[in-house]
Amino acid sequence: MPIATVNPANGETLKTYEPMDEEELERRLQLAEATFRTYRTTTFAERSRLLHKAADLLDEDQPEIGRVMTTEMGKPIKQARAEAAKCAKAMRWYADRAEALLADEEPPEPDVRDSGASRVRVRYRPLGPVLAVMPWNFPLWQVVRFAAPALMAGNVGLLKHASNVPQTALYLEDLFHRAGFKEGCFQTLLIGSGAVDGILRDERVKAATLTGSEPAGRAVAATCGEMIKKTVLELGGSDPYVVMPSADLGRAARVAVTARVQNNGQSCIAAKRFIVHTDVYDAFAAEFVAGMEALKIGDPLDEGTEVGPLSSKRGRADLEELVDDAKRSGAEVLCGGQRPEGPGWYYPPTVLAGITREMRIHREEAFGPVATLYRADDLDEAVLIANDSPFGLSSNVWTRDDDEVERFARDLEAGAVYVNGMTASHPAFPFGGVKRSGYGRELSEHGIREFCNITTVWQGA
């Protein structure tokens, strides 16, 4: 895949870039290793000052970088600016809290005495250069939620971004440089996916994090397993959205529309499978379909657009294949389901009902504005349908029954359970999944400690 900005609204190639050659890649790996030796000894106060400066610059750049993201991958411009604002918020969150999150810990005094020590501390130390392999769908946020905690912990970052968002990738390196981080603290590597394996095998690279597809995650995990290097993987998701009879039905239906089409439906944590109790199924389906049909589709740079194009021609074709397979197998199309005429990689908001286990869309992630509706007779069946997926990233439940909340929180196989609201990442909450959605956690104290050497310091009398 070429490293290029291709406007998904019209298919026009705007900029192309040559991949870095081996000599330049080697220079950057050397720089990362050398920079880490000194950066690791900087104080939390100094790192915090630099990250606050990066956040301030990002706020200033919000209109410009928002337009770049929209042009590169098609998200509506308002959502692009909101993404930039969210990134600045996360930077400040870690800048203000990292020192406390990584403070030395001391076991209870009786346990220390029992070990024969006069003092025992647990210390969090940085690992070194970390490779981040990141996707195009949230081209700023996916990177910042790794970079902010990693830099505050004293690591240095190497970014291999998706090949269709090179301008955003280069902006990130420039942002941290303008903020005052030393050259080598955060570097963008303009390389193809074929170069990733060699970097992972380089002894100077100590760990890796990947957000992306399941095949990409398998490849990174396999190499890092062979090299015995730490990895964090956030892969696909096919999140359930369960609606029970006690729910505020109107609000559940309105939020369901946003939960499905956020980022043009191209989000791992977007609700994709809507599992509705039979007592309220018809009423919910009517409101949900009406909401999906009312969405404004158009130029993502238009302030009024709610759904823009998919990021690539291939992505739209993959989505069409899932929908067409479901239709051939008997699924009912309640709205959408047909590619529009004209330029750009648009696909309409679509709702499918009558889904069976034989349909590909039941097992595979639909990465675009396509929702599947399921009918459940009771809570037990709702849980069975929700868990009948290879993925387990997040989940959404709508109920005002406290006993049902506890059942769903106990039994849903997911990294998060959001009750009476849609899934949204936040710096304070751990983020990640189970099953084929990956392992490890980003954000919160759990995320900043993923790439730390948790060191026991034992002192005798």
From TrEMBL:
The keyword Oxidoreductase applies. Its EC number is 1.2.1.16, 1.2.1.20, 1.2.1.79. SUPFAM superfamilies: ALDH-like. GO terms for molecular function: aldehyde dehydrogenase [NAD(P)+] activity; glutarate-semialdehyde dehydrogenase (NADP+) activity; succinate-semialdehyde dehydrogenase (NAD+) activity; succinate-semialdehyde dehydrogenase (NADP+) activity. Belongs to the aldehyde dehydrogenase family. The keyword Membrane does not apply. Pfam families: Aldedh (PF00171). It is an enzyme of class 1 (oxidoreductase). Residues 3-457 form the Aldehyde dehydrogenase domain. InterPro entries: Ald_DH/histidinol_DH, Ald_DH_C, Ald_DH_CS_CYS, Ald_DH_N, Aldehyde_DH_dom, ALDH_GabD1-like, GABD/Sad-like. PANTHER family: SUCCINATE SEMIALDEHYDE DEHYDROGENASE [NAD(P)+] SAD. Keywords: NADP, Oxidoreductase. This is NADP-dependent succinic semialdehyde dehydrogenase. It comes from the Bacteria. CDD domains: ALDH_SSADH1_GabD1.
